[in-house]
Amino acid sequence: MDYKSKAQEIYKKTRPDPRYVQMMGEGSLSPIQRATVGEIENHLRICDEVSQEYDGVTIQPDKVKFGATREEIVAIAESKAKRYRRRAGVRALERKYGHESAARIVKKHSGRTIQ
C-alpha cells in the first residue's frame, strides 16, 4: 500500500475553502482538516500495522478517530479479536450443520439467538 499517495488524496479531499478558514478560524476545523500529509500518512501506517499484527482483524483508518495513539488502536484491535474468537464455536456449528440448525442448537444450550 502506498501510504504517501493515499495520504495526499485524503489531504486534498479534506481541505476546506481558505475563505472559510479565514472567516471562521482554525478552531472550527476537525482534526483531519488541520492535519498535514505526514500526519495522515502516519495514521494510515499505524492502522495498517496494527491490522497486520492481529490476524483476522481489519482496522479501517476512516473508522478510527484521527489522531488516536497506537495504544488506542491496539485496544480497538484487541476488542475486535476478542469478539471474533468468542463466536468461533458458532461459526464452527454453522459450517458443520448450517445456519438454521446451528441457531437451534445455540438457543437450546445457551438461550442465545444468533443472527
Mind explaining what this structure looks like?
With 115 residues, this protein is mostly helical. The protein has one domain (3-86). Helices cover 69% and strands 0% of the residues. The protein has seven helices and no strands. It has helices at 3-14, 18-24, 31-34, 37-53, 70-86, 88-97, 99-110. The two termini are 34 Å apart. The mean pLDDT is 90.
Question: How many helical stretches?
Answer: 7
Helix and strand sequence: HHHHHHH
> How many domains?
1
Percentage of residues in DSSP E strands: under 5%
Query: Percent helix among the residues?
Result: 55-70%
Radius of gyration: 21 Å
Q: Report the span from N to C terminus.
A: 34 Å
Strand count, sense and barrel status of the largest sheet are:
none
**General form:** elongated
Mean pLDDT: 90
Number-wise, the strands total 0
Which structural class fits the helix and strand makeup?
mainly alpha
State the low-pLDDT regions, or none.
none
Short recap of the structure:
This protein has 115 residues and is mainly α. The protein has seven helices and no strands.
Which properties best describe this structure?
115 residues; mainly alpha; 7 helices; elongated
Walk me through the topology.
Blueprint: H1 3-14, H2 18-24, H3 31-34, H4 37-53, H5 70-86, H6 88-97, H7 99-110
